[in-house]
Amino acid sequence: MIGYLIRRFGQSVIVLLIVTVFMFLLFHMLPGNPARAELGVRAQPAAVAAFDRLNGFNKPVWYQFWVYIDKLAHGNLGFSYIQNASVAQLFAQRFPKSILLVGLAYGLAIIVAIPLGILQAVRRNKVDDYALTGASFILYSFPTFWLGIILIEVFAISLHWLPPTAPEGTSVGQILSDPKGLVLPVVNLALVSIAAYSRYMRSAMIDSLAQDYIRTARAKGVSRKAILFRHALRNSLIPMATLIGLSVPAVLGGAVITEQVFNYPGVGLLFIQSAGSEDFSVLLGLTLVAAVGVIIGNLIADIGYAILDPRIRY
Questions:
Q1: Residue 69 sits in the same domain as residue 127
Q2: Tens digits of residue pLDDT in 271-295
Q3: pLDDT digit string, tens, across residues 25-45
Q4: CB within 10 Å: which end of the chain, N or C, has fewer?
Q5: What pLDDT is recorded for position 239?
Q6: 110: Cβ–Cβ under 8 A, 6 or more apart, which residues?
Q7: Are residues 207 and 96 in the same domain?
Q8: Residue 101 and residue 53 share a domain
């Protein structure tokens, strides 16, 4: 088990280094200039050149990358000249609120999708299975932004049940003080995941229920409830652990769109605003942090996979 975890951790570090190199080069190839973004489009060439010399932007790309890696090693994600604040400071202000949104959406998706998948497997090819399958396909095909607009139109504008925008606040406590404002962003982010997770859970349960050890348990007179939850469920959760870990990028991408649609003051909204103002330092820093989150999510999924399936440990 220890050797397996060490190998997976080493692979994660290599992947993170490759992602860092790729993203650094990609952002340097984008049109625009940090000096122009800070000083304005009418800045004199002499002022732009002085700005580049002061911040090292006139150096070769490999030298700038080396300096960037050195800063990262010391916990420095960069500095936003447009917002006059460090990227780490901006990130620290927004990150807890994004974690709240993603965590609630993830929890809701898992709590709803797993029972739905079990129900569909037990009721396979019945009317309720067909109805849930159709609903899953419809939700899975919806773009996140379009689903959010529909939720706002129905529940905020037409029915007046919920507010159309997310709660505003500088802290998680202030966000939680308006729980009704969190409903639509959380549901919008969770619905697509529920559709995907329930389909995979259905397939995994059907596959588990067709195994020989299930037939043996039935022949021994084991109750249906024990077969479902003691024998089939654990083996069905093995592919689900992998799926949940691999879906971290999709959930993070959906969070960016959801925060924009509902004006939720998280990291995703900061990313959209920084893209509009060509704040490359913030974009690079947030992209790197997102990559770390994806890698950690996959690492946790691998650990969960090893816990659920003892064969992986060896």
A1: no
A2: 888 877 777 778 888 888 778 877 7
A3: 777 766 666 666 666 667 677
A4: C
A5: 75
A6: 197, 244
A7: yes
A8: no
In order of 22, 57, 181, the CA distances from 26 in angstroms are 6, 15, 37
For residues 301 and 194, membership in a common domain is answered with: yes
Q: How does DSSP assign 94-118, residue by residue?
A: HHHHHHHHHHHHHHHHHHHHHHHHH
The first and second tokens of residue 175, run together, are 């966000």
Measured CA to CA, the distance from residue 278 to residue 274 in angstroms comes to 6
Does 198 fall in a domain? yes
**Which domain does 160 fall in, by range?**
91-313
User: pLDDT tens for residues 105-128?
Assistant: 888 988 998 888 888 888 888 888
d(CA 186, CA 182): 6
Query: Is 9 inside any structural domain?
Result: no
Q: How far apart are CA 118 and CA 236, in angstroms?
A: 9
Q: Is residue 6 part of a domain?
A: no
Residue 233 lies in a domain: yes
| 55-90 burial code (b ≥16 CB/10 A, e <16) | beeeeeeeebbeebeeeeeeeebbbbbbbeebbbeb
Contact 115, 202 (CB under 8 A): no
Please enumerate in sequence order all residues whose Cβ is within 8 A of that of 145, keeping only pairs 6 or more positions apart, or say none: 257, 260, 261
**Final residue in a domain of this structure, among 16, 46, 76:** 76
Asked if 63 and 98 sit in the same domain, the reply is no
AA letter at 91? F
Higher pLDDT, 179 or 29: 179
Distance between CA atoms of 123 and 56, rounded to whole angstroms? Answer: 64
pLDDT at position 32, please? 60
| Number of domains present in the structure of the chain | 2
Helix (H, G, I), strand (E, B) or coil at 84: coil
Answer yes or no: are the C-beta atoms of 268 and 258 closer than 8 Å. yes
> Which residue(s) pair with 80 in the sheet?
85
Same domain, 280 and 307: yes
